[in-house]
Amino acid sequence: MSPSPTPRPGAGRWCSERRAGRTNPPRGEGPREGSDVTTHVLGDVPFGLGLVEAAARPGRRVTLSAAARARVAAARAVVERHAGGDEPVYGLNTGLGGNLAYRLTPGEVEAFQVQLVRGRSIGVGEPFPEPVARLMLLCRIVGLAAGGSGISPAVLDLLVAMFDAGLTPVIPGRGSIGAADLGLCAHIGLAAIGRGEVFVGGARRPAAEALAEAGLAPARLAAKDGLAILNSSAVSCGHAVAVLRDWADLALLSAAVAALSCEGYAANPRIFDPRLASARPARGQERAAALFRAALDGSALHAPGAARSVQDALSFRTLAPVVGTALAAFEAAVESVETEVNAAADNPLVLADDGLILSTANFHTPAIALAFDALAIAGAQLATGVAWRAAKMLDARMTGLPRYLSPVGGASAGLNALGKTAAALHAEVRLKAMPASLDALPVSDGVEDHAPQTPLTIRKLGEQLEPLRMLVAIEALVAAQAVDLRAPPHLAPVTRILHAAMRDAVPRLDEDRETGPDVDRVVALMRGPELVGRLRAALGDAGNAFDLRMTPIRGQA
């Protein structure tokens, strides 16, 4: 195979998808399910995170395109030329971090790569779930296919074979500060050399045993191979894909619940007029307004003469700008991860066309850290609106409905006591919105004196989702009860789907009862894929606002 011409490292390297002997265009709707195996071809065009997510599903396989193999071979040839030379190259013939000044002898070069993997396997704590770790392994394979790492083709082939065989490295959840995920990616390398553990069908197994049962020999690391596996933000990227999927689904559900609240509150729908949104075209606001127009299309709120306020409380009136800002923050986070997944972020980086290996800072991920901190703040903004809409619907002075939405009146508390739960959840959401990217301690004898704390920002956003989901469930309970008591002539098709799903899960409140279990049942409803899938379908194009796309944001019209 000829290594020339060689596309630059990081040039579009993702894939089309092959199934049953066909190659489908990468801008299609993604892999189609079937009884045969779906294989994703890595190396030709960039992927959006939706396609990353699809490729990592259980049973999916990956293979490298001819262009990717040419890049890998060309970069490897450069590494091998430098391995025998006198010029110092970081991590190839020198130590790392504080040991930068140490020059490896030719006899130490290969042994150092195993030493590097073992000595930097420093992850601690509960491991990531198997599906998330599989995303991480895939992200590292994609980065290696860029050609900038100079990894030996045989080692990359082993990682691909592990992915295809369902051997997923067990990766602890803590141990990275975001200046690459060396200490966590090392656990990928540890599994590849037959040490550590892997997940196989949900069970944890010694890596050596699992490799042998799959007919795979442990990797024999040559010059730079260990560093090539380690020097990556693949752990952050894989975790980010999983968290962004959950965030997108919850954001869409929250918007649908807010629309149901508009029905129960009898909010004025004119606030979503496209002319209003376009007059101040802040990023995301026009699409958020379109999302609410789609959610309320066909509602009795639009009927001539329908009772409505000239101007509602801000928790209703600001839905388009608040949700639009969250949409903008979400897309910024997605774009930051897409850039990292589809990039050559190695240090040092092999420039095959020029025959050079140069030190870089491409491993540093402040863009992801800042984007995820911002998205957590956007989540807190959403939470404030959620909490106040629920409070407004419980206020008879605002709605004209029975006090606390109790149909029996008197001393009945109705749903009002849930306000305390909402306040507690809102405080927790706000706590998780505190930025994590501000603090870093210098490490490696002070050589590494800046770090974005990217893994922490991602984990913190994921932890914010649970109290936020519970808070949205409370709004949904209150909104459904308000709709029952207001009894509008008809709901919009979208809000009707949500209201019906709510009533399948929880009966209307006819007398005081324990409402904590009701919230838990709604949370379970929101966690499942069925409701969000039905709502996306009913919303049409507007339902794609909060989603992971098959093609990168930068590549979309």
Radius of gyration of CA atoms, rounded to a whole number: 26 Å
Q: Compute the number of strand runs.
A: 11
Biggest sheet features: 4 strands, mixed
* pLDDT averaged residue by residue: 90
Query: Can you tell me the number of structural domains?
Result: 2
The CATH class name of the largest domain reads Mainly Alpha
Per DSSP, the total helix count is: 20
Write a short abstract of this structure.
It is built from 20 helices and eleven strands.
What does the model show?
This protein is α+β, with helices and mostly antiparallel strands. It has two domains: 17-232, Orthogonal Bundle (Fumarase C, Chain B, domain 1), CATH 1.10.275.10; 245-347 and 363-439 and 451-548, Fumarase/aspartase (Central domain) (Fumarase C, Chain A, domain 2), CATH 1.20.200. The protein is built from 20 helices and eleven strands. The chain has helices at 49-55, 66-83, 109-119, 130-144, 153-165, 182-192, 207-213, 225-230, 234-265, 274-279, 285-296, 314-317, 319-341, 366-393, 396-399, 418-431, 454-486, 493-505, 516-527, 529-539, and strands at residues 17-19, 22-24, 38-42, 61-64, 124-127, 168-169, 172-174, 197-200, 203-206, 349-351, 356-358. A four-stranded mixed β-sheet has the order 2-1-3-4. A hairpin with a 2-residue loop joins β1 (17-19) and β2 (22-24). α9 crosses α20 and α16 packs antiparallel against α17. The chain is elongated, with a radius of gyration of 26 Å. 54% of the residues are buried. Residues 1-16 and 18-35 have low confidence and may be disordered.
